[in-house]
Amino acid sequence: MQVPTPLLPEAARRFAAWCAVLLLAAGVVYVGIRLIVEFRTAVVPVLLALLGTALLGPLHRRLVKAGVHRSIAAGLTCVAVVAVVGGAVYIVVAALIDTGDEIVASLKEAARGVSEHFGAAGTSLDDLASNARELLGKFGGTAASGVISGVSVVGESIAMAVLALLLVFFFLRDSDKAAGTLRSLSPRGSADTLEAMARRALRAVEGFMRGTTFIALIDALCITVGLLVLDVPGAAGLGALVFVGAYIPYLGAFISGALAVLVALADRGFVIALWVLGVVLAVQVLEGHVLQPMIQSRTVQMHPAVVMVTITAGASVAGVLGMLLAVPLTAAAFGVIQELRIRYGEQEAPPAGGS
After folding, report:
1. For 331, which of 19, 194, 202, 229 is 20 to 30 Å away at the CA?
2. How far apart are alpha carbons 37 and 319 in whole angstroms?
3. Is the pTM above the cut of 0.90?
């Protein structure tokens, strides 16, 4: 019996098979993203709780090893994180309130200088202000509806934060049962692989969260000290913004550093602004060449291009929250891929001395 000749060559059939796989994977990812966006009020607290659990897990384990009951240790850990986060928010808000007027005045002065040197003919700050007033008058109703929607967003955010905190408590308390639950739900023969993948992802997220927090603190302290030495107004508030912005790699540091340079340019002149730029660049060099390799050497290392694309994708999906969650989730995914590569690479490697 004669075997029919394929209509397409082998290379074309392989290409078509890979295209089908990529299209199927893209469809699954798209549907998953749409479902996450649709159920964001339930998904976002879970993701935030997982990040919080990864960051607070070592503290909870130390309390348990010290003889504290798991529920009490989880409660104490949650109380500690509320105190720390509340204190940090209070410091940031207080610093911004104390120095906010100075920062705004400096930015206005910088905008005035830019408009004088680079503004178009017939354009001034007064013209811009009058145009802004006309726009506000035309879209007053829209602004009012925006305020109402903003209030609802704030309420939704508070509810999600409370739910995330409660989930952190339960995740910490029952963390010892997570491996057993995962193994019981795993298909036959895949329990070890799934547990190893979960542990590798958790280690990657833990390392990222701890390292980012420590690096953010060092960056904020160094830049704040530099701004105080250069007598730049609003140094405390700008340092607080540097700390918060450090959780968004590259983009957060760029925005906070640019703001510090603008404030220095407006209040202290061009020379001091250059010094501030030097301080910001020095801190970034210290972070990229010393702190990152030293502190996050045991976590999943990602190329800067991958990080920037991940942040952009997260922003397009969920705004600022997506930017915050994108990098740690990608780190977890890289950890899973690395674990699969190690396991299946070892299985497919030919034995030494084999024919």
Report:
1. 19
2. 11
3. no
